[in-house]
Model the fold of this input.
Amino acid sequence: MTRKLFIKTYGCQMNAYDSARIADVMAPHGYSLVDDAMGADMIVLNTCHIREKAAEKVYSELGRLRGVKEARAAQGSHLLIAVAGCVAQAEGAEIIARAPLVDIVVGPQVYHRLPEMVAKIDRGAAQALDTEFPAIDKFDNLPETKSAPGPSAFLTVQEGCDKFCTFCVVPYTRGAEYSRPVAQIEVEARHLADLGVKELTLLGQNVNAYHGVGPDGEIWGLGRLIRRLAKIDGLLRLRYMTSHPRDMDDDLIATHADEAKLMPYLHLPVQSGSDQVLEAMNRGHTVDDYKRLADRIRRARSDIMLSSDFIVGFPGETDADFQATMSLVREIGYAQAFSFKYSPRPGTPAACARKQIADDTKAERLSALQDLLREQSDAFARRCVGEAIDVLFERPGRHAGQLVGRSPYLQAVHARAPDTLIGQVKRVRITEVKTNSLAGELSQPCAVVN
Ligand code: SAH
Ligand code: SF4
Ligand code: F3S
Done:
C-alpha cells in the first residue's frame, strides 16, 4: 500500500538535507513524497528554532492542520502529523502539550527511527517522542538516496556546534560538533554524482570546523576533503556552508586558490562590525581579524565574492556599534547578505542580558543595513552585465524555451537554451538585471564547459 508523505521544511539547508533523508527513510515503508499537503497521509514539519518567528510559524501551521486532521477523522482516516527538526529538539513534549494533534515528535539526530515511531502510532499508541542524541551515528542508519535530486545537491558533512555564541540555539538543538568520516562522505558524493548531480554543497552548522577521520586514519580538514571530492569525475562544482571566521585555516584558503571546482563564493558570517558586540556574542574574533581574513581569502582567489549574516539590536548594541557594522559592510563589500533583528532565544545567555534593545530601534537599524546591503548586491548584479559567466542549468524557466541556472555566485540566471543543457555548465553573456535574477544569452559557440 502506498501512502503519501508531505514534508514542509523550515530553516537552513541542513534541514533541507534532512528532509530529503526523511523521505529516503520512509520510502521503503511505502511512503512516497508528494508536493501538496492536501490528500497526504503523513505530514512532517521539519522545523527551525533559530528566531522566535521561525518557531511560532510551526504553531500557526499546526493550528491550520487541526481542521484538516479533524475532517480526515470524520471520514474515518488518520492524518499522521510529525514535528521534526530544531523545534522538536528544543521543545519536545511541550509541542504535544500545546498541539495535541501532533502524533510524533522526532529530533534531528534520530529521524532514522521514524519508521518505528510510525509503526507505534499505527499500533494504536497515542503519541511517540524521541529527541535523544544517540551515541550511534544516524548516518550509518540512513538508506541510500534513490531519486536524483537534480543537478545541484546538499551533502551534510558536519553537524552540531561547540561555539556557543551567546545568541544562538544551535549548540542546544543540534548538539556537539561532529564530523562524518571522509570515506562515508565520499561514498555518498559518488552516489549523488552517479545520479546526475553536478554541484555539491557540503553542509555543516560549522562546516569549516570539519575534522573527519580520513581513509589513512588521520584527521582531515575541510580543504583536504574538498580536494578529494573534486577528483570525482561527474562533479563540476563544489561549495560549502556555513563557515565561522575562526575556522578558516591556511589549507582551506589555499584550496580556494588551487581547486578550480571550488566556486569563488564564500558565506562568511561576521554578525557585527563592533568589537564590543563581537565579544558579547562570544564570536572569538575581532573586526580586524575578520578584515585580515577577508584579505587573505581575496589574495588566494581574486574573483571570490563574500556573503554574510548580520544581527542588529544585540543586547547593549549602541548607535556607534551599529555604525561600526555599517562601516565594515562598506569596507568589505558583499555580493549578498542576510540580516536579522536579534531575537532572544530561551536558554541562551544573551536572552537574559539586561540591556535589551527596543524593537523600533532594531527595526530602524535593520532597514538601514538592508538598504546598504541591497545597494551592494544590486551593484554587483549590474557589474555582471556584459560579462560571460558560467551557468549550471538546473531546470526549465517560466517561459517556453528558457532554462534557469546558477552563476558561480549563486545568482539565478535565465537564458534561452534547449532542455538538453540541463545539468551542464555553459557560458552565458549577461544582458540584463531582473528583480531577483539575471538574464543572458548563451555565448556562441556554446561548447565552453567548466
Ligand atoms: N553557524 C552559522 C550560523 C547559523 S544560524 C554561523 O556561525 O554563522 C544562521 C544565522 O542566524 C546566524 O548567522 C545569525 O546571523 C542568525 N541568528 C542566529 N541566532 C539568532 C538570534 N537569536 N536572533 C537573530 N538572528 C540569529
Ligand atoms: Fe550558532 Fe555560533 Fe554555532 Fe554558528 S557558530 S551555529 S552562530 S553558536
Ligand atoms: Fe534552524 Fe536548526 Fe538550521 S535552528 S537554522 S533548522 S540548525
Observations:
- Confidence is low (pLDDT under 50) at residues 445-450.
- The chain has 13 helices and 21 strands.
